[in-house]
């Protein structure tokens, strides 16, 4: 497999890597997505009963995956944690991260190790150490992926979401972009349509579009271990 995206929640795939997934598929490269939770701790916006949110978001994600042209898709049902503020009156949950933020679920690392051994991805995209916004599931997923990739012994290139400039409260654990991909209009339009499938999370989608509109048409990543100049429009891995 040429490119595998590993994220904890439905919609995490499209904000930072949606255009890249579309373009890789258009170029005939093999793409995959592993999502670890159904996102049952998110908002419902009244579109479904709270107890049905996980299944509802799973259907939203499947529609987005079709638009993103993902070749291999897996959705798991590990528990979804909540960020610092509770949603819709629910108490905060830690999902698969512990209260102190340490990811100590070896079964998830073992799952990813197995999937990496089967899929043999040449490159993986996931969250950076700060999880972009300190969400405990984002931070934990970074730790899981890094541990599994290390254990696999494969030569996997690890790319982390890397906004050009983090908000001050998320500076710790931020990694600067090393690779910048600019999306053509036709790819951007498909990416926006994929974002629109996550209807229950419309407030998050609109907030991202309002605060980070400049990041819709470009996707920026940090390649672990890379020390060269910033790369633009780089096709990381084409079949030889």
Automatic annotation (TrEMBL):
Keyword Hydrolase listed: yes
InterPro entries: GlcNAc_PI_deacetylase-related, LmbE-like_dom_sf
Enzyme class: hydrolase
Molecular function GO labels: hydrolase activity
Keyword Hydrolase in annotation: yes
SUPFAM superfamilies named in the record: LmbE-like
Keywords: Hydrolase
EC number(s) per entry: 3.5.1.-
Protein name: N-acetyl-alpha-D-glucosaminyl L-malate deacetylase 2
Organism in which the protein naturally occurs: Meiothermus hypogaeus
